Amino acid sequence: MESFVGEIRPFAGERVPEGWHLCDGTELPVSKYEALFALIGFTYGGSAGDTMFRLPDLRSRIPLGEGAGYNLGRPGGEEGVALTVSNLPKHRHPVACSTSNAANLPDAATGLWSASDTKGFLYNSTPGKIEMNNESIQPEGKGEKHENRIPMFAVSFIIALQGIFPSRG
């Protein structure tokens, strides 16, 4: 099956077939690849007046269909994402305390800090517990980047430098 100029295919081989090139952002001369340039122009790099244009660079990228905020030739996404407290859903770490002395509180199933330290941290379900200020427990984390990708399998992407010139239809 003959390819269309500008067609991109996933490729599992180590040697790129003749008439194809890796989608690696390589700069090519317009004069040598006029048909391909007529189709992709400066979409992936270069500008009017340049004698060179770039191929798409799909290394470490997942192709995505154009549309709904995704413009042809524009990369997006991040390889590493640092989570911050603002990325987490709103939630609380409820901790109750009491104004009673620890000696006056019976043991129970929920945790409680008392006004005195004779027993330290107690487990208690006594009515009248008060909720502590949200600032009592500080956010944790280092803000380090982590990988954020779907399960994947790496292959190369290649683009046809020659073949059938697609007709407009």
Automatic annotation (TrEMBL):
It comes from the Bacteria. InterPro entries: Phage_tail_collar_dom, Phage_tail_collar_dom_sf. It comes from Dyadobacter jiangsuensis. Coiled coil: none annotated. It holds the Pfam family Collar. Residues 6-63 form the Phage tail collar domain. This is Microcystin-dependent protein.
